[in-house]
Amino acid sequence: MRRAIELAAQHRTHPNPRVGAVVVAASGEVVGEGAHHGVGQSHAEVLALEQAGDLARGSTLYVTLEPCNHLGRTPPCAPAIVEAGVARVVVGVIDPDPGVSGSGVSRLRDAGVEVEVDVLGDEAEAVDPAYFRHRRTGLPFVTLKMAMTLDGSVAASDLSSKWITSEPARSDAHVLRSASDALVVGAGTVRSDDPLLTVRLEAVEEQPVPVIVAGRQSLPLESRIWERSPIVISTRPLGVPSGEVVVVPGDEERPDPNGTARALAERGLLDVLLEGGPNLAGSWWRAGLVGRGVLYVAALVGGGRGLAPLEGDFATMAESQPVNIDDVRMVGPDMRIEFHVPHNGVSRESRFLHSDGEERRILRPDEPPSPTSHRSGGRRQAGRGA
Ligand SMILES: NC(=O)c1ccc[n+]([C@@H]2O[C@H](COP(=O)([O-])OP(=O)(O)OC[C@H]3O[C@@H](n4cnc5c(N)ncnc54)[C@H](OP(=O)(O)O)[C@@H]3O)[C@@H](O)[C@H]2O)c1
Question: Using CB atoms within 10 A as the burial measure, which of 14, 25, 44, 102 is most buried?
Answer without folding.
Answer: 44
